[in-house]
């Protein structure tokens, strides 16, 4: 594992081991990688095994390779509030059921991305229904929290879906024909189609934000040049989480790690191992404002946190229009989104 170099020409500023929560830099607040080997379901969306010895309501045990989180029968996160930031959820495997206080609902997965601007306040649930009653129900996702600048912390909440089929990808083959695939959730990438539009009040929508969210897949031996960020002062984290070894410029990384890399230069990435390498990249221009956080509220001052708590007690951020705190959207492995009002989208089911 490389140490923090003092030479400006080395790409890796610092390297940190990957734990349950991955380290982030401004403008990002939080990054969690959930990788749960859920068993077969019981026909009612819950695990068909005993939940004994789990702390139901707050189970992060990873017992048998999975957790119930805050769910009591269905795994996941029943209704809970947010204010002052955004959640970006990238699903690699499995399906998630979303419901919120705007009346929006969705079932998504298999490469889809959900982007929610909490703004002045939203309540939502994220449940992981186990639809398959005869085989395991693996689930893997990233949940990323992106901060909002003070001027946008009290904007109207917003919910959108970025469907897997529409997300731009760049496939690059090096001189030996080995492929690197870059999936562009946010942020322009030279050679790739234009990214889908993030929510209108997002820091990712501001030209000065220089926000990028990419996933990288490098075949064994593949080489690809990570292009320099556009903004001066942009910070960049490269999370190496799958594979044997990775070389960033001249520096070798032999274990999974969160790598803060110099953003203002191009760096050649090389998969030096025998298996595929996968990375998540988060970058952005720092917002550079004070951060006051209390659980699901992220503001600039403690007084604003107290106001958020009082507002939620008083208004429930508009109330909860669902009969349960943990809604599940049926037995079919369909992908859909129903937006506030009448608009709805239906996507083909994942194979």
TrEMBL record:
Cofactor: Fe cation
Domain Pirin N-terminal: 71-146
Pfam families: Pirin, Pirin_C
Cofactor, free-text remark: Binds 1 Fe cation per subunit.
A GO MF term: metal ion binding
Bias kind Basic and acidic residues: ranges: 326-335
Ranges where the Pirin C-terminal domain occurs: 214-318
Keywords: Iron, Metal-binding
Binding site for Fe cation: 80, 82, 124, 126
Top-level taxon in the UniProt lineage: Bacteria
InterPro entries xrefs: Pirin, Pirin_C_dom, Pirin_N_dom, RmlC-like_jellyroll, RmlC_Cupin_sf
Residue numbers spanned by region Disordered: 322-351
Family (UniProt): Belongs to the pirin family.
Name this protein carries in UniProt: Pirin
Organism this protein belongs to: Acidovorax soli
């Amino acid at each position: 594992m490389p140490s923090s170099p003092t030479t400006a020409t080395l790409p890796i500023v610092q390297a940190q081991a990957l734990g349950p929560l991955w380290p982030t830099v401004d403008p990002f607040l939080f990054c969690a990688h959930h990788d749960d080997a859920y068993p077969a379901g019981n026909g009612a969306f819950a695990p068909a095994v005993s939940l004994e010895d789990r702390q139901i309501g707050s189970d992060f045990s990873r017992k048998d390779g999975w957790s119930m989180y805050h769910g009591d029968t269905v795994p996941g996160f029943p209704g809970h509030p947010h204010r002052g930031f955004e959640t970006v959820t990238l699903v690699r495997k499995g399906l998630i059921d979303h419901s919120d206080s705007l009346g929006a609902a969705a079932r998504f997965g298999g490469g889809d991305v959900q982007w929610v601007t909490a703004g002045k306040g939203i309540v939502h649930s994220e449940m992981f229904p186990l639809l398959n009653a005869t085989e395991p129900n693996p689930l893997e996702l990233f949940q990323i929290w992106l901060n909002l600048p003070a001027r946008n912390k009290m904007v109207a909440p917003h919910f959108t879906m970025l469907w897997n089929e529409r997300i731009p990808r760049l496939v690059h083959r090096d001189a030996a024909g080995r492929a690197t695939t870059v999936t562009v959730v946010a942020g322009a990438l030279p050679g790739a189609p234009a990214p889908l539009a993030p929510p209108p009040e997002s820091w990712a929508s501001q030209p000065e934000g220089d926000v990028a969210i990419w996933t990288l897949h490098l075949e064994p031996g593949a080489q690809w040049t990570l292009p320099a960020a556009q903004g001066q002062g942009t910070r960049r984290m490269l999370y190496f989480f799958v594979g044997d070894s990775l070389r960033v410029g001249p520096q070798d990384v032999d274990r999974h790690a969160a790598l803060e890399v110099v953003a203002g230069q191009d760096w050649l990435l090389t998969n030096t191992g025998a298996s595929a390498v996968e990375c998540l990249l988060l970058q952005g221009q720092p917002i550079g404002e004070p951060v006051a956080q209390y659980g699901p509220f992220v503001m600039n001052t403690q007084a604003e946190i107290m106001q958020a708590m009082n507002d939620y007690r008083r208004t429930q951020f508009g109330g909860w229009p669902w009969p349960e705190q943990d809604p599940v959207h049926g037995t079919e492995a369909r992908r859909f989104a129903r937006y506030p009002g009448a608009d709805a989208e239906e996507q083909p089911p994942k194979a």
